[in-house]
Amino acid sequence: VLLGGYVLHDEADHWWGNAKQRLEVDGACITWARFKREFLTKYFPADERNCKVIEFMELKQGSMTVS
């Protein structure tokens, strides 16, 4: 997670600073999976992800489809 935190800028950097303090309260190590879950929850909520999945599955080019 150390490397992931370094590439954040502006608002995301402030969010991560606060989230990191909150997550490290009990001294737990923040794993990549935990960082990813927190980040996606904040910046790419499940309902948006589901809409994008549906949008992707409905893509067409001529008579060809993704699904």
Task: Explain what this protein looks like in three dimensions.
The protein has 67 residues and is mainly alpha-helical. It has one domain (2-65). The chain has four helices and two strands; from the N terminus they run H-H-H-H-E-E. It has helices at residues 2-6, 10-23, 32-43, 46-57; strands spanning 60-61, 64-65. A two-stranded antiparallel sheet has the order 1-2. A hairpin with a 2-residue loop joins strand 1 and strand 2 (64-65). The longest helix is centred in the N-terminal third of the chain and has 14 residues, at 10-23. It is elongated, with a radius of gyration of 17 Å. The model has no long low-confidence stretch (mean pLDDT 84).
> Which class do the helix and strand fractions yield?
mainly alpha
Q: What's the helical proportion of residues? A: 55-70%
**Model regions low in confidence, pLDDT < 50 over at least 5 residues:** none
What overall geometry do the principal axes of the alpha carbons give? elongated
How many DSSP helices? 4
Q: Tell me the distance between the termini.
A: 34 Å
Largest sheet: number of strands, sense, barrel closure: 2 strands, antiparallel
Strand content is 5-15%
Write out the strand line-up for the largest beta sheet, numbering strands in chain order.
1-2
List the helices and strands in order. Answer: HHHHEE
List the domain count as a whole number: 1
Please state the average pLDDT score: 84
What is the CA-based Rg, rounded? Answer: 17 Å
Task: Report the count of strand segments.
Answer: 2
